[in-house]
Design a protein that fits this description.
- The chain is α/β, with parallel strands linked by helices and about 260 residues long.
- Helix 4 crosses helix 5 and helix 9 packs antiparallel against helix 10.
- A hairpin with a 2-residue loop joins strand 3 and strand 4.
- The termini are far apart.
- About 50% of the residues lie in helices and about 20% in strands.
- It has 2 domains: about 210 residues, Alpha-Beta Complex (2-enoyl-CoA Hydratase, Chain A, domain 1); about 50 residues.
Length: about 260
């Protein structure tokens, strides 16, 4: 049982996470440091609760996930995940995490994995579910499941194969190799690498650029991404994009920006 219960806005109690919002950014920190931030059932439920709240909060425009201590996520909690045997018991447990990660993939606001340290197995599956990934120079990443006589069990391989060239993705999956942050950046697994001491500042600055934009525009572009990922035909996506822009066109805020621009000219 986790002992450090915390509160977030709205009076929701969370025990496995530290949650706050600041300047349009929702911060979610995994705080199971005693087990290297391993995911357990309570954390899954609490993440859903926080995602619900931030989704409906107009003040939050972008989310950042990170870990306490020197680990992002070490994978699934062995005490819980190794208590099951065989497909009949394992499938519901694995599916529960897979559904959480798929929710993050399709989340209507941008999500960022701030990879502050070791990210192994399921930790990589979580990170690849986010829209952006930035890593500390001290981070090491590895899809190590194959060496454990299993595979990725939360949808990570499918998502990795969508994001990276097949040979790069298969190399990571089939060898189980742990790569440092610079190599991960070369492969396209992470979008940027920074010194540990300045990682937070760099990620916050990037997130701040998004948070400075109008929420309706952010949500609109995230919908366009969702249409692409759903397999919708390009011509249909273009039609819907034009219709979406037409609904935003001529709003008071749009007109005010244009008028300010014209006055400057």
């Amino acid at each position: 049982m986790e002992r450090n219960e915390r509160k977030i806005a709205g009076g929701i109690s969370v025990e496995t996470l530290q949650v706050c919002k600041q300047d349009g950014i929702g911060w979610i920190t995994f705080t199971r440091e005693h087990v290297k931030n391993a995911i357990n059932l309570l954390m899954i439920d609490e993440l859903h609760t926080v995602l619900d709240q931030f989704q409906d909060d107009a003040e939050v425009k972008v989310l950042i996930f990170t870990g306490a201590g020197d680990t992002f996520i070490s994978g699934g909690d062995l005490e819980q995940f190794m208590s099951v045997r065989g497909a009949e018991q394992a499938l519901p447990l694995l599916s529960k995490v897979g559904e959480l990660l798929e929710r993050i993939v399709a989340y209507p606001k941008p999500t960022i994995a701030m990879i502050n340290g070791a990210t192994i197995g399921g930790g990589c599956e979580f990170a690849i579910s986010c829209h952006f990934r930035f890593a500390s120079e001290a981070a090491r990443l590895g899809f190590v499941q194959i060496g454990m006589h299993i595979t990725t069990g939360w949808g990570g391989a499918a998502r990795l194969l969508d994001k990276l060239p097949e040979t790069a993705a298969l190399t990571l999956l089939l060898t189980g190799e742990r790569v440092d942050a610079r190599r991960a950046e070369q492969l396209g697994l992470v979008d940027g690498v920074y010194p540990a001491a300045s990682l937070r500042d760099h990620v916050q600055a990037f997130a701040g650029k998004i948070a400075a934009q109008p929420l309706e525009g952010i949500l609109a572009y995230m919908r366009i991404l969702g249409w692409k990922r759903s397999g919708m035909e390009r011509s249909e996506r273009i039609r819907m994009e034009i219709e979406q822009c037409a609904r935003l066109w001529g709003s008071d805020r749009h007109v005010a920006v244009v008028e300010r621009f014209l006055k400057k000219k």
